[in-house]
């Protein structure tokens, strides 16, 4: 039986026909090209049954929006470098961009860059994460890289460059949840005693009493405080500095951050982006007293600095009024722990401590969220991570249970 002569299909319909080369061909309209003409994909098989099956599969992928767009065939390297510089950079914060850029340049491009973007598979990513950790990277670093590539591939899916996000399917590196033990009231008191001997001692009172994030504390300006009314407005975040060489035609040979003529190329602070992060917190009476004393000490430093004073309005400033470095601030915290004879811990543990104190005091959850700057939608999960049931609390509950069950009833 001879095949019927090829007839013209309606516009947009798929066609299957026997070519002069003896092979079966299919044409599927999947969209519109950049020049406005129909994008018709060609399929070639040996038999009619094979080409029919392939045509139906392409039609299904088209209808489910899982078909790759025509045009540039991206490699993983090309897409990631394009994404981080042209898509992510204009729309994310400086700190977020820095994290993305390091993940792409240091880890993803060397490890996965040669793959075709459309052929990247979950197994490629999983092996890559294992190789990272085998080479010495921590699980936290591998997990951060996973989050970055997931965001980048998600954008590729939205733009039609790949049908699926391989990072959504791949198993992320496993993170062991660290056991966090907040500082006890006695440990906090020891820290406050030693902090009194430090410059900017009120910085650590604020950390332990209010639980401000590091960037929030170092981004405070005097205009954000009303000590007479007794409140502070958290609105700004101190950004990590970034430098460029200033040595010009006579290069110093050092990294930009150590250049004697280095130039700051990043703004010092940004406004807090989330609604929950922008908040007003009432100040405890003793903290107001500490802050008044701190303002008097800073005024004496201003007079001593004379014309060298930078009048930028920071609550916690350098001896000449400039902003504090986040790295220096961290090392002062570590020294404070050693001097106070208190076990080592992260700066963020001070925030855990402040949250746990609120739990001990029985402060309602909605008030805790407002003080700590947690978004209402995800506050319950964050609250569980930051507010810790202490041994003292458990002993108190055990005593209450014992009294209720074994205490003899009182008689009139």
From TrEMBL:
Core-binding (CB) domain mapped to chain residues: 74-157
State one Pfam family annotation: Phage_int_SAM_3
Which residue range or ranges hold the Tyr recombinase domain? 178-399
InterPro entries of this UniProt entry?
Answer: CB, DNA_brk_join_enz, Integrase-like_cat_sf, Integrase_catalytic, Integrase_recombinase_N, Integrase_SAM-like_N, Phage_Integrase
The alphabetized list of GO BP terms reads: DNA integration; DNA recombination
Record keywords: Flavoprotein included?
no
Highest taxon of the lineage: Bacteria
Q: Which SUPFAM superfamilies match?
A: DNA breaking-rejoining enzymes
Q: Which UniProt keywords apply?
A: DNA integration, DNA recombination, DNA-binding
In its UniProt record, a GO molecular function of this protein is:
DNA binding
The UniProt annotation puts the region (Disordered) at 1-20
Question: What's the family?
Answer: Belongs to the 'phage' integrase family.
Name of this protein: Site-specific integrase
